[in-house]
Write a structure and sequence with these properties.
- By secondary structure, this protein is of the alpha+beta class.
- The chain has one domain (7-193).
- The protein has seven helices and six strands; from the N terminus they run H-H-H-H-H-H-E-E-E-E-E-E-H.
- The model has no long low-confidence stretch (mean pLDDT 88).
């Protein structure tokens, strides 16, 4: 991309574009991985990685969105996105400060990596919960949320830490709604100075021996 005006716009656009791409990558296999856990526990590390990577990427999108020049903090799509994804900040704060969490004299009773729950693929009213890691005295964990009005689970996959639940489906949907606003908005607002291309500027280096 090339811009003749504010380079910050280009940097933010790059940050947002690839963050949304990465978010879709980590979200897509999440439910399938969890569904395989009852018969294949070896999938648990992958499932954990996808869940916590999701937290990190959504946090990054929030940060870049608020840094985007010209995008008012009062803009309704931005406000809606930040509100719908606010719970992610609690999860990221927890995992970023894991050292201090584990150093507390009164150790919190929830599992280090949290509890992971998912909806049974053969019964939409049934959910499974796995407590990740050792179960210590008075272990606490959270599970999925069932919407009595809609008569369905809020999310197919849910991560719980410290009494809080991160329902991935609505957070992902909110991120995609924001993506569909912020990318076109940026391109429209700064179109005269931006040129896009799908060609990757790959450089090749070859070492010669002797």
């Amino acid at each position: 991309m090339h811009a003749s005006s504010d380079i910050r716009v280009i940097k933010c656009l790059d940050g947002l574009h690839y963050s949304f791409e990465i978010l879709s990558y980590v979200y897509a296999p999440m439910y399938e991985l969890c569904s395989r856990l009852p018969s294949d526990s070896s999938q648990l590390p992958r499932a954990i990685w996808h869940c916590w990577s999701f937290v990190d990427v959504v946090h990054r999108i929030r940060e870049v969105a608020e840094a985007l020049p010209g995008l008012s903090k009062k803009e309704q799509p931005l406000r809606a996105f930040l509100s719908a994804t606010a719970v992610v900040e609690d999860f990221r704060h927890y995992i970023q400060h894991l050292r201090s969490e584990l150093s507390k004299k009164d150790v919190n009773p929830f599992p280090v990596w949290g509890s992971l729950s998912w909806i049974d693929p053969s019964n939409e009213l049934r959910a499974h919960i796995v407590v990740i890691g050792a179960r210590v005295a008075k272990t606490s964990y959270t599970g999925p949320i069932f919407d009595l009005k809609e008569k369905r689970w809020v999310s197919k996959v849910c991560l719980g830490v410290a009494g809080k639940s991160l329902n991935f489906d609505p957070v992902y949907e909110a991120a995609m709604v924001f993506r569909d606003f912020v990318i076109p908005w940026t391109m429209s607002a700064y179109a005269p100075g931006i040129r896009t291309t799908t060609e990757l500027p790959i450089m090749t280096i070859e070492a010669r021996l002797g």
